[in-house]
Amino acid sequence: MRILITGGAGFLGSHLCDRLIEQGHEVICLDNFFTGRKRNVSHLLGNPNFELVRHDVIDPFKAEVDQIYNLACPASPVHYQYNAIKTIKTSVQGAINCLGLAKRTKARVFQASTSEVYGDPDPSIHPQPESYWGNVNPIGIRSCYDEGKRCAETLFMDYHRQNGVDIRIVRIFNTYGPRMCPDDGRVVSNFIVQALQGKDITVYGEGQQTRSFCYCDDLINGFLKLMNQDELTGPVNIGNPGEFTIYELAEKVIALTGSKSKIIHEPLPSDDPKQRQPDITVAREKLGWEPTVCLDEGLKPTIEYFDKLLSEER
Ligand code: NAD
Ligand code: UDP
After folding, report:
1. Tens of pLDDT along the chain (314 residues)?
2. 145 is catalytic
């Protein structure tokens, strides 16, 4: 197949490019390089099945394709809050452009949505199933991302109902691994970089908020199963249900890096979700998918990646 990946030079997009190229597909990787890097896909540049295009998804694009993965959107709070209006435009206008292209070409189109559609979940809804409508602040500092992604889901469902577009929606829970951006402010990259540089580890608040961390290879397996499954149209959670407090993560990173860094506390940003864990019953039952890499195991290659990156920069 010829497959378009928007945001293909980013962390997850570049792993998806690798997998689809390995499977023998033609890949068009489209990116504006806001948070993505050419180095994430530079090893693919000589491959005749791979094409890299600089383009912003806010503008329409034309191509004859069989499948579209829409991943373009800054994903870390630091990056998506940098230009909040641009973030909403990327989610909403990017979705409209992908859906318009899918409608014309009859391509199946996949939306990278997020656990952020659940916002700061009601503590009684834990873990979060796909049927939960969420608890999202529409006017806070995270809203540009959360509401942009919610609106994109609405557009996907409406194009499906109104125009019969063949859609897939994944709700991704916190994912980590090699090729994360070292300065994106996300907790895994921050803690590893701080530990490797011997700097203080910055836990926001008391560190009792939780997240469930999925290794990137597991997530990409889930993407491929969802995209190539014939029946599903509704959103599907993909994530690792192993839930950790942020303080526990800091301790793990210190232990695995052998760092002498100290843990310090900084103010908790507003609207920071208190807990998050995916209910993956749908993925298990309908896709036969579940994660295989536990946090300790996945942190090792991630630490190795950052260690190499930082030593190249020194
Ligand atoms: P990333 O920032 O590494 O990748 C996003 C890519 O999109 C980058 O290459 C960036 O340059 C590109 N991009 C941004 N705006 C664009 C625009 N207007 N036009 C074209 N390209 C644009 O982040 P990631 O972690 O790889 O996330 C990929 C997708 O998965 C995003 O849509 C994100 O919202 C979603 N997601 C990721 C996670 C996670 O934990 N990694 C969790 C939930 C959802
Ligand atoms: N966090 C932290 N220290 C950091 C970066 C993040 O304690 O240096 C916390 C953050 O407040 C949140 C959690 O880690 O509670 C996950 O943050 P991240 O930005 O990775 O993802 P998200 O909040 O979008 O899930």
Report:
1. 999 999 999 999 999 999 999 999 999 999 999 999 999 999 999 999 999 999 999 999 999 999 999 999 999 999 999 999 999 999 999 999 999 999 999 999 999 999 999 999 999 999 999 999 999 999 999 999 999 999 999 999 999 999 999 999 999 999 999 999 999 999 999 999 999 999 999 999 999 999 999 999 999 999 999 999 998 779 999 999 999 999 999 999 999 999 999 999 999 999 999 999 999 999 999 999 999 999 999 999 999 999 999 998 77
2. yes
Cβ(29)–Cβ(52) under 8 Å? yes
Using CA positions, which residue lies closest to atom 22 of ligand 1?
A: 72
**DSSP 3-state helix, strand, coil percentages of the chain (rounded to 5)?**
40, 20, 40
Predicted TM-score (pTM) of the model is 0.97
| CATH of region 2-313, choose from 3.40.50.720, 3.30.70.260, 3.40.50.2000, 3.50.50.60 | 3.40.50.720
> Domain extents for the chain?
2-313
Q: Is 256 exposed, middle or buried (0-12, 13-18, 19+ CB in 10 A)?
A: middle
User: What's the DSSP call for residue 272?
Assistant: -
Residue nearest atom 1 of ligand 2, based on CA coordinates = 187
